[in-house]
Design brief:
The protein is mostly helical. 57% of the residues lie in helices and 8% in strands. The protein has a two-stranded antiparallel sheet. 6% of the residues are buried.
């Protein structure tokens, strides 16, 4: 029972997740500090209030509503989301697109049968409608051979 728990904890994805959460919370603390120290006072000066507006609030029948905290938290969230998007998501998407294989489905390439003019796969050697013998398209045949070789996991020679 404890061995299973140890295996679960020591798996790479669990450790990576824990590290990601720790770095994320530290990054959030930095962004919140930056927002409170610089952005919030600048917005307060720009809107005419003096300095930090994060302690701004209004009162209705004795209930205090600290709307300044909401604005400060929203600013911190927007900064965090923008940094993560532009510095993590966009570069990772470009990297994944660059290294993504161009996978084509050999059955999706179509052509017309020369005898009955019905649509058949480009790699077909017989028409499914009139059963006449047809020559496969050379480019489609090469693609089908390449994809079948990639799918057949041939072990390396020893």
């Amino acid at each position: 029972m404890l061995n299973g728990f140890k295996d679960f904890i020591l798996r790479g994805n669990v450790i990576s997740l824990a590290i990601g959460l720790a770095v994320g919370s530290a990054f959030t603390a930095v962004v919140t500090g930056f927002s409170k120290a610089f952005i919030t006072p600048l917005i307060g000066l720009a809107t005419g209030s003096v300095g930090d507006f994060s302690e701004a609030s209004f009162t209705i029948r004795g209930a205090v509503f600290p709307y300044g905290l909401l604005i400060a938290a929203t600013i911190a969230f927007v900064i965090t989301a923008a940094v993560l998007y532009f510095f993590v998501v966009v570069p990772m998407t470009k990297i994944q697109e660059r290294f993504a294989r161009q996978e084509t489905d050999i059955k999706s390439e179509k052509r017309d049968c020369p005898d009955c003019f019905s649509e058949i796969p480009a790699v077909a050697t017989r028409c499914a409608h009139c059963t006449s013998h047809v020559e496969p398209v050379a480019a489609a045949l090469e693609n089908s051979l390449e994809s079948s070789l990639e799918k057949a996991a041939v072990p390396a020679a020893r």
